[in-house]
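Hey, does this match?
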Amino acid sequence: MRRTAVTLAASLAASLALLAGGVAVAPTAPAASTPAAAAAPAGGGVTARDACLASVPDPGGTAPVEICYTIFKPARASARRPVPMVMHSHGWGGQRAEQAEVQAYLDAGYGVLTFDQRGFGESGGHAHVENPALEGRDVRALVGVVARLPWVRQDGPGDPRLGAVGGSYGGGYQYLGAFELLRTRGTPVFDALVPQITWHDLSQSLAPNGVVRTEWALALSAASLLSDALPPTVYKALIEGAALGVWPDGSIPGTEDMVRFFRKNGPKWHVDRGRRLDIPMLLGQGTTDGLFPLEQGFRNWRSAMTARARERSIFVGYNGGHVLPAILPAGTSADTDPCSRKLAGGDFEKLSVRFLDHVLRGRPTSLRGFGRMHLATPGDRCTTITSPAANTTRKVGTVATLTGVGTPLSYPVAAGPIRVAGTPYLTGQMTALGVQNRAFYGLAVGTSPLDARLVQNNVLPIDEPAPVLGERRRVALPSVAVDVPKGQNLYLMVTPVSDTFLVMGSRLPGVVTIEDTVVHLPVVGR
Protein backbone atom coordinates (compact mmCIF):
# COMPACT_ATOMS: atom_id res chain seq x y z
CA MET A 1 0.00 0.00 0.00
CA ARG A 2 1.33 3.44 -0.93
CA ARG A 3 2.35 5.42 2.16
CA THR A 4 0.70 8.84 2.10
CA ALA A 5 2.25 12.01 3.51
CA VAL A 6 0.71 13.92 6.41
CA THR A 7 -0.13 17.59 5.95
CA LEU A 8 -1.08 20.21 8.51
CA ALA A 9 -4.19 21.48 6.78
CA ALA A 10 -5.50 22.07 3.30
CA SER A 11 -4.31 25.67 3.42
CA LEU A 12 -0.73 24.55 4.03
CA ALA A 13 -0.69 21.57 1.69
CA ALA A 14 0.63 23.51 -1.30
CA SER A 15 3.32 25.12 0.83
CA LEU A 16 4.87 22.07 2.44
CA ALA A 17 7.52 21.38 -0.20
CA LEU A 18 10.02 21.59 2.62
CA LEU A 19 13.14 19.77 3.66
CA ALA A 20 14.93 17.66 6.18
CA GLY A 21 18.46 17.04 7.46
CA GLY A 22 20.87 14.33 6.44
CA VAL A 23 24.22 12.80 7.32
CA ALA A 24 26.77 11.51 4.86
CA VAL A 25 27.60 7.82 4.73
CA ALA A 26 30.14 5.86 2.75
CA PRO A 27 28.58 4.82 -0.57
CA THR A 28 27.92 1.19 -1.31
CA ALA A 29 26.87 -0.43 -4.54
CA PRO A 30 23.11 -0.54 -5.17
CA ALA A 31 21.48 -3.90 -5.63
CA ALA A 32 19.69 -4.88 -8.79
CA SER A 33 16.18 -3.68 -9.49
CA THR A 34 13.34 -5.69 -8.06
CA PRO A 35 10.98 -7.39 -10.51
CA ALA A 36 8.55 -4.99 -12.12
CA ALA A 37 4.89 -5.36 -12.87
CA ALA A 38 4.01 -5.80 -16.52
CA ALA A 39 3.37 -2.62 -18.46
CA ALA A 40 -0.29 -1.65 -18.39
CA PRO A 41 -2.33 0.69 -20.61
CA ALA A 42 -2.58 4.12 -18.97
CA GLY A 43 -4.82 6.00 -21.39
CA GLY A 44 -4.18 7.81 -24.67
CA GLY A 45 -1.98 5.00 -25.93
CA VAL A 46 0.41 5.53 -23.02
CA THR A 47 1.62 2.48 -21.09
CA ALA A 48 2.70 2.62 -17.44
CA ARG A 49 5.06 0.34 -15.55
CA ASP A 50 5.64 0.42 -11.78
CA ALA A 51 8.87 -0.90 -10.30
CA CYS A 52 11.32 -0.45 -7.43
CA LEU A 53 15.10 -0.61 -7.29
CA ALA A 54 17.25 -1.46 -4.29
CA SER A 55 19.52 1.43 -3.31
CA VAL A 56 22.02 2.09 -0.50
CA PRO A 57 20.98 1.54 3.13
CA ASP A 58 20.12 4.38 5.48
CA PRO A 59 22.89 5.35 7.93
CA GLY A 60 23.28 2.70 10.62
CA GLY A 61 21.39 0.09 8.62
CA THR A 62 22.37 -2.76 6.36
CA ALA A 63 19.17 -3.43 4.43
CA PRO A 64 18.95 -1.85 0.95
CA VAL A 65 16.32 0.87 0.63
CA GLU A 66 13.72 0.45 -2.08
CA ILE A 67 13.16 3.44 -4.37
CA CYS A 68 9.90 3.07 -6.29
CA TYR A 69 8.99 4.65 -9.58
CA THR A 70 6.60 4.65 -12.52
CA ILE A 71 7.65 4.80 -16.16
CA PHE A 72 5.19 6.20 -18.69
CA LYS A 73 5.90 5.23 -22.29
CA PRO A 74 4.22 7.36 -24.97
CA ALA A 75 2.25 5.62 -27.69
CA ARG A 76 4.70 5.90 -30.59
CA ALA A 77 7.96 5.32 -28.72
CA SER A 78 9.91 2.26 -29.82
CA ALA A 79 13.46 1.06 -30.37
CA ARG A 80 13.12 2.24 -33.96
CA ARG A 81 11.63 5.58 -32.90
CA PRO A 82 13.30 6.41 -29.58
CA VAL A 83 12.22 9.49 -27.64
CA PRO A 84 13.84 11.69 -25.00
CA MET A 85 12.94 11.06 -21.35
CA VAL A 86 11.81 13.52 -18.68
CA MET A 87 12.44 12.66 -15.03
CA HIS A 88 10.03 14.00 -12.40
CA SER A 89 9.75 13.95 -8.64
CA HIS A 90 7.60 15.52 -5.97
CA GLY A 91 7.83 18.20 -3.30
CA TRP A 92 8.27 17.51 0.40
CA GLY A 93 5.50 15.33 1.78
CA GLY A 94 4.42 14.23 -1.69
CA GLN A 95 4.64 11.16 -3.88
CA ARG A 96 5.26 10.32 -7.50
CA ALA A 97 2.93 11.67 -10.14
CA GLU A 98 -0.15 10.16 -11.67
CA GLN A 99 -0.45 10.29 -15.44
CA ALA A 100 -2.60 13.43 -15.46
CA GLU A 101 0.11 15.37 -13.63
CA VAL A 102 2.68 14.72 -16.36
CA GLN A 103 0.30 14.55 -19.31
CA ALA A 104 1.71 17.71 -20.92
CA TYR A 105 5.09 16.00 -21.36
CA LEU A 106 3.52 12.76 -22.64
CA ASP A 107 1.43 14.75 -25.12
CA ALA A 108 4.64 16.37 -26.33
CA GLY A 109 6.07 12.90 -27.04
CA TYR A 110 8.38 12.49 -24.05
CA GLY A 111 8.69 9.43 -21.89
CA VAL A 112 8.38 10.16 -18.18
CA LEU A 113 9.95 8.51 -15.15
CA THR A 114 8.40 9.77 -11.91
CA PHE A 115 9.67 8.47 -8.57
CA ASP A 116 9.04 8.50 -4.82
CA GLN A 117 12.02 9.98 -3.07
CA ARG A 118 13.59 8.20 -0.12
CA GLY A 119 11.21 8.32 2.86
CA PHE A 120 8.07 9.13 0.84
CA GLY A 121 5.34 7.34 -1.07
CA GLU A 122 6.16 3.66 -1.58
CA SER A 123 9.90 4.19 -1.19
CA GLY A 124 11.58 3.13 2.03
CA GLY A 125 14.12 4.69 4.35
CA HIS A 126 14.21 8.18 5.81
CA ALA A 127 14.45 11.46 3.92
CA HIS A 128 17.92 13.01 4.14
CA VAL A 129 17.22 16.05 1.99
CA GLU A 130 19.15 15.26 -1.17
CA ASN A 131 22.26 13.97 0.56
CA PRO A 132 24.85 12.95 -2.08
CA ALA A 133 25.63 9.60 -0.40
CA LEU A 134 21.94 8.64 -0.16
CA GLU A 135 19.47 10.43 -2.43
CA GLY A 136 22.40 11.08 -4.76
CA ARG A 137 22.89 7.34 -5.21
CA ASP A 138 19.13 6.93 -5.70
CA VAL A 139 19.03 9.41 -8.58
CA ARG A 140 22.13 7.95 -10.20
CA ALA A 141 20.55 4.47 -10.09
CA LEU A 142 17.36 5.81 -11.69
CA VAL A 143 19.37 7.36 -14.50
CA GLY A 144 20.81 3.89 -15.04
CA VAL A 145 17.26 2.52 -15.38
CA VAL A 146 16.51 5.11 -18.08
CA ALA A 147 19.75 4.29 -19.89
CA ARG A 148 18.63 0.66 -20.26
CA LEU A 149 15.24 1.42 -21.85
CA PRO A 150 15.46 0.49 -25.57
CA TRP A 151 12.82 3.05 -26.57
CA VAL A 152 14.65 6.02 -24.99
CA ARG A 153 17.00 8.03 -27.18
CA GLN A 154 20.63 7.50 -26.18
CA ASP A 155 23.52 9.89 -26.80
CA GLY A 156 26.06 7.24 -25.87
CA PRO A 157 26.55 4.26 -23.56
CA GLY A 158 24.81 5.03 -20.27
CA ASP A 159 23.87 8.50 -21.54
CA PRO A 160 20.15 8.88 -22.29
CA ARG A 161 18.72 12.07 -23.75
CA LEU A 162 17.32 13.29 -20.45
CA GLY A 163 15.57 16.30 -18.97
CA ALA A 164 14.22 16.82 -15.45
CA VAL A 165 11.29 18.71 -13.91
CA GLY A 166 9.87 19.30 -10.45
CA GLY A 167 9.51 21.94 -7.77
CA SER A 168 11.01 22.54 -4.32
CA TYR A 169 12.21 19.12 -3.11
CA GLY A 170 11.50 18.08 -6.70
CA GLY A 171 13.96 20.75 -7.82
CA GLY A 172 16.56 19.69 -5.28
CA TYR A 173 16.96 16.21 -6.79
CA GLN A 174 17.72 17.77 -10.18
CA TYR A 175 20.75 19.70 -8.98
CA LEU A 176 21.78 16.75 -6.83
CA GLY A 177 21.64 14.25 -9.70
CA ALA A 178 23.43 16.44 -12.24
CA PHE A 179 26.19 17.47 -9.83
CA GLU A 180 26.71 13.93 -8.53
CA LEU A 181 26.96 12.53 -12.05
CA LEU A 182 29.39 15.33 -12.90
CA ARG A 183 31.43 14.46 -9.80
CA THR A 184 31.48 10.71 -10.37
CA ARG A 185 31.45 10.45 -14.18
CA GLY A 186 32.82 13.77 -15.35
CA THR A 187 29.54 14.61 -17.13
CA PRO A 188 26.15 15.63 -15.70
CA VAL A 189 24.31 13.19 -18.08
CA PHE A 190 21.15 15.33 -17.73
CA ASP A 191 20.78 17.46 -20.86
CA ALA A 192 18.34 20.01 -19.44
CA LEU A 193 16.99 20.92 -16.00
CA VAL A 194 13.78 22.74 -15.04
CA PRO A 195 14.12 23.30 -11.27
CA GLN A 196 11.41 25.38 -9.59
CA ILE A 197 11.29 27.12 -6.18
CA THR A 198 14.30 25.25 -4.85
CA TRP A 199 17.42 26.10 -2.89
CA HIS A 200 21.09 26.91 -3.28
CA ASP A 201 22.10 26.69 0.39
CA LEU A 202 19.81 24.84 2.81
CA SER A 203 21.23 26.33 6.00
CA GLN A 204 20.92 29.87 4.64
CA SER A 205 17.37 29.11 3.47
CA LEU A 206 16.14 27.65 6.73
CA ALA A 207 18.14 29.96 9.00
CA PRO A 208 19.58 33.06 7.32
CA ASN A 209 22.39 34.43 9.50
CA GLY A 210 21.60 31.64 11.96
CA VAL A 211 18.06 32.92 12.69
CA VAL A 212 15.49 30.17 12.12
CA ARG A 213 12.49 30.63 9.82
CA THR A 214 10.31 29.14 12.53
CA GLU A 215 7.04 28.91 10.61
CA TRP A 216 8.63 26.72 7.99
CA ALA A 217 10.63 24.64 10.44
CA LEU A 218 7.44 23.84 12.36
CA ALA A 219 5.57 22.99 9.16
CA LEU A 220 8.42 20.67 8.17
CA SER A 221 8.26 18.84 11.46
CA ALA A 222 4.48 18.51 11.51
CA ALA A 223 4.30 17.33 7.90
CA SER A 224 6.77 14.53 8.55
CA LEU A 225 6.12 13.32 12.08
CA LEU A 226 3.36 10.75 11.62
CA SER A 227 4.75 9.39 8.35
CA ASP A 228 8.18 8.89 9.95
CA ALA A 229 9.92 10.56 7.03
CA LEU A 230 12.71 12.25 9.00
CA PRO A 231 15.54 10.90 11.11
CA PRO A 232 14.85 11.40 14.86
CA THR A 233 17.83 13.73 15.27
CA VAL A 234 16.17 16.33 13.04
CA TYR A 235 13.12 16.60 15.32
CA LYS A 236 15.46 17.00 18.27
CA ALA A 237 17.34 19.77 16.48
CA LEU A 238 14.14 21.66 15.63
CA ILE A 239 13.07 21.60 19.28
CA GLU A 240 16.52 22.78 20.33
CA GLY A 241 16.43 25.64 17.85
CA ALA A 242 13.03 26.86 19.08
CA ALA A 243 14.03 26.59 22.73
CA LEU A 244 17.45 28.24 22.42
CA GLY A 245 16.58 30.77 19.75
CA VAL A 246 19.54 29.71 17.60
CA TRP A 247 20.24 27.40 14.69
CA PRO A 248 21.81 24.31 16.31
CA ASP A 249 25.43 23.99 15.20
CA GLY A 250 26.77 21.59 17.84
CA SER A 251 28.59 24.35 19.72
CA ILE A 252 26.50 23.63 22.83
CA PRO A 253 27.41 20.18 24.26
CA GLY A 254 24.68 17.62 23.70
CA THR A 255 22.93 19.53 20.90
CA GLU A 256 22.64 18.58 17.24
CA ASP A 257 24.75 20.07 14.45
CA MET A 258 22.37 21.09 11.68
CA VAL A 259 25.08 23.00 9.83
CA ARG A 260 26.96 19.74 9.35
CA PHE A 261 23.73 17.91 8.44
CA PHE A 262 23.04 20.33 5.60
CA ARG A 263 26.63 20.98 4.51
CA LYS A 264 26.56 18.81 1.36
CA ASN A 265 22.84 19.01 0.61
CA GLY A 266 22.61 21.56 -2.17
CA PRO A 267 24.38 23.23 -5.08
CA LYS A 268 26.52 25.40 -2.78
CA TRP A 269 28.62 22.43 -1.64
CA HIS A 270 29.47 21.52 -5.22
CA VAL A 271 30.03 25.13 -6.27
CA ASP A 272 32.44 25.64 -3.36
CA ARG A 273 34.46 22.76 -4.81
CA GLY A 274 34.70 24.35 -8.23
CA ARG A 275 31.96 22.41 -10.01
CA ARG A 276 29.65 24.08 -12.52
CA LEU A 277 26.91 22.58 -14.67
CA ASP A 278 27.38 23.24 -18.37
CA ILE A 279 23.81 22.40 -19.38
CA PRO A 280 20.80 24.60 -20.20
CA MET A 281 18.30 25.29 -17.43
CA LEU A 282 14.91 26.90 -17.08
CA LEU A 283 14.92 28.20 -13.52
CA GLY A 284 11.60 29.11 -11.90
CA GLN A 285 11.66 30.94 -8.57
CA GLY A 286 8.92 32.52 -6.46
CA THR A 287 9.27 36.26 -5.94
CA THR A 288 7.02 35.94 -2.87
CA ASP A 289 8.59 32.68 -1.66
CA GLY A 290 9.22 32.79 2.10
CA LEU A 291 11.27 29.58 2.34
CA PHE A 292 13.49 29.54 -0.75
CA PRO A 293 13.42 33.23 -1.64
CA LEU A 294 14.31 34.82 -4.94
CA GLU A 295 17.94 35.23 -3.86
CA GLN A 296 18.38 31.43 -3.70
CA GLY A 297 17.48 31.22 -7.38
CA PHE A 298 19.79 34.14 -8.19
CA ARG A 299 22.68 32.29 -6.53
CA ASN A 300 22.04 29.17 -8.59
CA TRP A 301 21.88 31.29 -11.74
CA ARG A 302 25.13 33.09 -10.95
CA SER A 303 27.21 30.23 -9.60
CA ALA A 304 25.76 26.76 -10.26
CA MET A 305 26.16 26.91 -14.03
CA THR A 306 28.83 28.01 -16.47
CA ALA A 307 28.65 31.30 -18.35
CA ARG A 308 28.00 29.30 -21.53
CA ALA A 309 25.10 27.48 -19.88
CA ARG A 310 23.56 30.81 -18.76
CA GLU A 311 23.55 31.99 -22.37
CA ARG A 312 21.35 28.97 -23.18
CA SER A 313 19.17 29.26 -20.07
CA ILE A 314 16.18 31.28 -18.88
CA PHE A 315 15.31 32.54 -15.38
CA VAL A 316 11.66 33.22 -14.55
CA GLY A 317 10.45 34.71 -11.28
CA TYR A 318 6.72 34.44 -10.64
CA ASN A 319 4.48 35.60 -7.82
CA GLY A 320 4.15 32.44 -5.75
CA GLY A 321 6.23 29.64 -4.30
CA HIS A 322 6.24 28.71 -0.61
CA VAL A 323 3.85 31.36 0.66
CA LEU A 324 2.25 31.92 4.05
CA PRO A 325 0.30 35.04 5.03
CA ALA A 326 2.50 38.04 5.91
CA ILE A 327 0.73 39.65 8.86
CA LEU A 328 3.53 41.22 10.89
CA PRO A 329 4.91 43.08 9.11
CA ALA A 330 1.99 43.38 6.72
CA GLY A 331 2.71 42.20 3.20
CA THR A 332 0.89 41.86 -0.09
CA SER A 333 -0.58 38.89 -1.92
CA ALA A 334 -0.19 38.04 -5.60
CA ASP A 335 -0.37 34.81 -7.58
CA THR A 336 0.55 35.62 -11.17
CA ASP A 337 3.11 34.61 -13.78
CA PRO A 338 3.37 37.38 -16.37
CA CYS A 339 6.84 36.30 -17.54
CA SER A 340 5.85 32.77 -18.62
CA ARG A 341 2.90 34.37 -20.37
CA LYS A 342 5.23 36.84 -22.09
CA LEU A 343 7.78 34.22 -23.13
CA ALA A 344 5.52 31.28 -24.06
CA GLY A 345 1.97 32.57 -24.18
CA GLY A 346 0.90 30.45 -21.21
CA ASP A 347 1.89 29.16 -17.80
CA PHE A 348 5.24 27.82 -16.56
CA GLU A 349 4.38 24.26 -17.63
CA LYS A 350 3.81 25.39 -21.20
CA LEU A 351 7.09 27.28 -21.05
CA SER A 352 8.78 24.13 -19.71
CA VAL A 353 7.58 21.99 -22.63
CA ARG A 354 8.76 24.56 -25.16
CA PHE A 355 12.13 24.82 -23.40
CA LEU A 356 12.59 21.05 -23.42
CA ASP A 357 11.57 20.89 -27.08
CA HIS A 358 14.20 23.50 -27.84
CA VAL A 359 16.98 21.77 -25.89
CA LEU A 360 16.23 18.03 -26.10
CA ARG A 361 14.80 17.91 -29.61
CA GLY A 362 16.40 20.96 -31.23
CA ARG A 363 13.02 22.01 -32.52
CA PRO A 364 12.42 25.58 -33.74
CA THR A 365 10.15 26.95 -31.01
CA SER A 366 10.60 30.73 -31.43
CA LEU A 367 11.35 30.73 -27.71
CA ARG A 368 13.14 33.88 -26.56
CA GLY A 369 14.55 35.34 -23.39
CA PHE A 370 17.73 33.23 -23.16
CA GLY A 371 20.56 34.51 -21.01
CA ARG A 372 18.32 36.85 -19.03
CA MET A 373 16.25 36.98 -15.85
CA HIS A 374 12.54 37.74 -16.15
CA LEU A 375 10.87 38.78 -12.91
CA ALA A 376 7.22 39.32 -12.01
CA THR A 377 6.22 42.38 -10.04
CA PRO A 378 3.26 42.37 -7.61
CA GLY A 379 1.40 44.43 -10.23
CA ASP A 380 1.59 41.55 -12.74
CA ARG A 381 4.27 43.09 -14.93
CA CYS A 382 7.34 41.28 -16.23
CA THR A 383 10.66 43.08 -16.00
CA THR A 384 13.82 41.71 -17.60
CA ILE A 385 17.34 42.13 -16.23
CA THR A 386 20.78 40.73 -17.02
CA SER A 387 22.12 41.06 -13.47
CA PRO A 388 20.52 41.38 -10.02
CA ALA A 389 23.39 43.53 -8.70
CA ALA A 390 22.71 46.89 -7.05
CA ASN A 391 23.65 49.89 -9.21
CA THR A 392 22.22 52.91 -7.37
CA THR A 393 22.58 54.34 -3.85
CA ARG A 394 20.20 56.33 -1.68
CA LYS A 395 21.17 58.01 1.59
CA VAL A 396 18.69 57.33 4.37
CA GLY A 397 20.46 58.67 7.48
CA THR A 398 19.81 57.12 10.86
CA VAL A 399 17.69 53.97 11.04
CA ALA A 400 16.69 52.74 14.50
CA THR A 401 14.42 50.06 15.88
CA LEU A 402 13.57 48.46 19.17
CA THR A 403 14.49 44.80 19.56
CA GLY A 404 12.41 42.11 21.22
CA VAL A 405 9.22 44.17 21.25
CA GLY A 406 7.67 46.91 19.13
CA THR A 407 6.15 47.56 15.73
CA PRO A 408 7.66 47.99 12.25
CA LEU A 409 9.09 51.38 11.27
CA SER A 410 9.51 52.63 7.70
CA TYR A 411 12.16 55.08 6.47
CA PRO A 412 11.86 56.85 3.08
CA VAL A 413 14.33 55.68 0.43
CA ALA A 414 13.07 56.91 -2.96
CA ALA A 415 9.99 58.50 -4.49
CA GLY A 416 8.14 56.85 -7.34
CA PRO A 417 8.09 56.22 -10.18
CA ILE A 418 10.99 53.81 -9.83
CA ARG A 419 11.48 50.16 -10.76
CA VAL A 420 13.66 47.97 -8.53
CA ALA A 421 14.60 44.44 -9.60
CA GLY A 422 17.41 42.41 -8.07
CA THR A 423 19.20 42.21 -4.74
CA PRO A 424 19.39 45.37 -2.59
CA TYR A 425 21.39 45.83 0.60
CA LEU A 426 22.28 48.57 3.07
CA THR A 427 25.48 49.77 4.68
CA GLY A 428 26.09 51.91 7.74
CA GLN A 429 27.56 52.20 11.24
CA MET A 430 25.74 49.88 13.66
CA THR A 431 25.33 50.33 17.40
CA ALA A 432 23.57 47.75 19.56
CA LEU A 433 24.39 47.65 23.26
CA GLY A 434 22.45 44.57 24.30
CA VAL A 435 23.10 40.87 23.72
CA GLN A 436 21.56 38.68 21.01
CA ASN A 437 20.53 41.81 19.13
CA ARG A 438 18.14 40.90 16.33
CA ALA A 439 16.04 42.92 13.92
CA PHE A 440 14.49 42.26 10.51
CA TYR A 441 14.90 44.41 7.39
CA GLY A 442 13.09 44.65 4.06
CA LEU A 443 11.70 47.05 1.47
CA ALA A 444 8.16 48.40 1.54
CA VAL A 445 5.93 50.52 -0.70
CA GLY A 446 3.20 52.98 0.27
CA THR A 447 2.03 56.57 0.24
CA SER A 448 3.37 57.13 3.75
CA PRO A 449 5.21 55.21 6.48
CA LEU A 450 1.83 54.43 8.04
CA ASP A 451 0.46 52.48 5.08
CA ALA A 452 3.71 51.04 3.69
CA ARG A 453 3.47 47.33 3.03
CA LEU A 454 6.30 44.85 2.73
CA VAL A 455 7.41 44.13 -0.84
CA GLN A 456 6.80 40.48 -1.74
CA ASN A 457 6.48 39.54 1.94
CA ASN A 458 10.13 38.92 2.83
CA VAL A 459 12.49 40.27 5.49
CA LEU A 460 16.03 39.24 6.45
CA PRO A 461 17.53 39.27 9.95
CA ILE A 462 20.62 40.71 11.53
CA ASP A 463 22.08 38.76 14.44
CA GLU A 464 24.57 40.49 16.73
CA PRO A 465 25.19 38.21 19.73
CA ALA A 466 27.45 40.72 21.52
CA PRO A 467 27.31 44.53 21.91
CA VAL A 468 28.58 46.60 18.97
CA LEU A 469 29.43 50.30 18.97
CA GLY A 470 29.63 52.18 15.70
CA GLU A 471 30.88 49.21 13.66
CA ARG A 472 30.43 49.19 9.91
CA ARG A 473 27.95 46.63 8.68
CA ARG A 474 26.54 45.44 5.38
CA VAL A 475 22.97 44.22 5.87
CA ALA A 476 21.34 41.99 3.24
CA LEU A 477 17.84 42.86 2.08
CA PRO A 478 15.48 40.42 0.33
CA SER A 479 15.69 40.27 -3.45
CA VAL A 480 12.67 41.91 -5.07
CA ALA A 481 11.03 43.01 -8.29
CA VAL A 482 8.67 45.95 -7.83
CA ASP A 483 7.32 49.02 -9.60
CA VAL A 484 6.84 51.99 -7.27
CA PRO A 485 4.25 54.20 -8.98
CA LYS A 486 4.14 57.97 -8.98
CA GLY A 487 2.61 59.24 -5.77
CA GLN A 488 4.04 56.38 -3.69
CA ASN A 489 7.41 55.84 -2.07
CA LEU A 490 9.92 53.07 -1.54
CA TYR A 491 10.73 52.58 2.16
CA LEU A 492 13.26 50.69 4.20
CA MET A 493 11.20 48.74 6.75
CA VAL A 494 12.78 47.53 9.97
CA THR A 495 10.92 45.51 12.58
CA PRO A 496 11.81 43.86 15.90
CA VAL A 497 9.56 40.86 15.17
CA SER A 498 8.45 38.85 12.14
CA ASP A 499 5.81 36.15 11.89
CA THR A 500 8.10 34.15 9.57
CA PHE A 501 10.77 34.16 12.29
CA LEU A 502 8.30 33.58 15.12
CA VAL A 503 9.97 33.82 18.59
CA MET A 504 13.35 34.31 16.90
CA GLY A 505 13.69 38.01 17.76
CA SER A 506 15.86 39.31 20.58
CA ARG A 507 15.11 37.64 23.90
CA LEU A 508 15.81 40.93 25.72
CA PRO A 509 14.45 44.36 24.71
CA GLY A 510 16.98 46.81 23.33
CA VAL A 511 17.73 49.16 20.44
CA VAL A 512 19.62 48.71 17.18
CA THR A 513 20.74 51.88 15.42
CA ILE A 514 22.42 52.20 12.02
CA GLU A 515 23.86 55.63 11.30
CA ASP A 516 24.88 57.03 7.91
CA THR A 517 22.67 54.39 6.33
CA VAL A 518 22.96 53.98 2.59
CA VAL A 519 20.54 51.72 0.70
CA HIS A 520 22.01 50.13 -2.43
CA LEU A 521 19.31 49.44 -5.02
CA PRO A 522 19.17 47.48 -8.31
CA VAL A 523 17.27 50.11 -10.28
CA VAL A 524 16.02 49.26 -13.79
CA GLY A 525 16.09 51.97 -16.47
CA ARG A 526 18.11 54.52 -14.57
In short: The chain has two domains: 31-280+290-309, 392-521.
